[in-house]
Design goal:
Structural class: mainly alpha
Helix content: over 70%
Radius of gyration: 24 Å
Oligomer: single chain
Order of helices and strands: HHHH
Strand content: under 5%
Length: about 90
């Protein structure tokens, strides 16, 4: 019974992976290209940035970037607190 369950799980996972691979787009074809054209056309005028990537990260998605930085800071602070050494008084 256990072997049959393992075989069933393996076959199900294999079918899932094959379905996922078959549904992939060809390499280099984006899903939504209309937003790309908008950012490329309006980055200089709206964000005053010569680099489109910089304008997207720091202007259009500024709050998202701020949230990611906050999460990263919190994770580093948590790790530092967990790994700190206790001072021995004596």
């Amino acid at each position: 019974m256990r072997r049959a369950l393992g075989l069933f799980a393996f076959l199900g996972f294999t079918l899932f992976l094959l379905g996922a691979v078959m549904s992939l787009r060809p390499f280099g074809e984006p899903i939504h290209a209309e937003m790309d054209h908008y950012f490329i056309s309006h980055a200089q005028a709206e964000a005053s940035a010569n680099n489109v990537v910089t304008s997207v990260v720091f202007d259009y998605r500024g709050f998202d970037t701020l949230g990611e930085a906050t999460v990263l800071f919190t994770a580093v602070a948590g790790v530092l607190m967990a790994l700190r050494r206790k001072e021995v008084k004596g």
